[in-house]
Design goal:
It is a single chain. The chain is mostly beta strands. It is built from two helices and five strands; from the N terminus they run αβββαββ. Strands 1, 2, 3, 4 and 5 form a five-stranded antiparallel beta sheet that branches. It is elongated.
Length: 101
């Protein structure tokens, strides 16, 4: 999350984290959601303490499996990189990146 916060993309980001079981090919946790503003900072700074999570309800059998943290990043803003800001007020949600940790 820190590397996303240091990047200045000029558009809002939605970042989703979850725990994924590679043996069963399915997520084993709920998704944790963080919204970043166009400067890469949390959109709601008054809720800074909520910018972290603890995945609970994982049994010892879950921790013995091949589990990974998955990250999905959605970019919100203009469709094209060169598109002028005043052309359209439509905000598009589109995939921007993903990672497996």
């Amino acid at each position: 999350l820190k590397s996303l916060m240091s990047s200045n993309l000029g558009e809002e980001l939605e970042v989703y984290f979850s725990i994924y079981d590679s043996k069963e090919n399915r997520p084993i946790s709920e998704r944790f959601f963080v919204r970043l503003n166009k400067n890469g900072l949390p959109k709601s700074p008054e809720k800074t303490e909520r910018q972290c999570t603890l995945f609970v309800d994982l049994g010892s059998s879950d921790l013995r499996k091949d589990v990974y943290i998955t990250v999905h990043i959605i970019r919100i803003g203009r469709m094209g990189a060169g598109e002028k800001k005043n052309v359209s007020n439509v905000q598009y949600r589109r995939p921007f990146g993903c990672a497996v940790i």
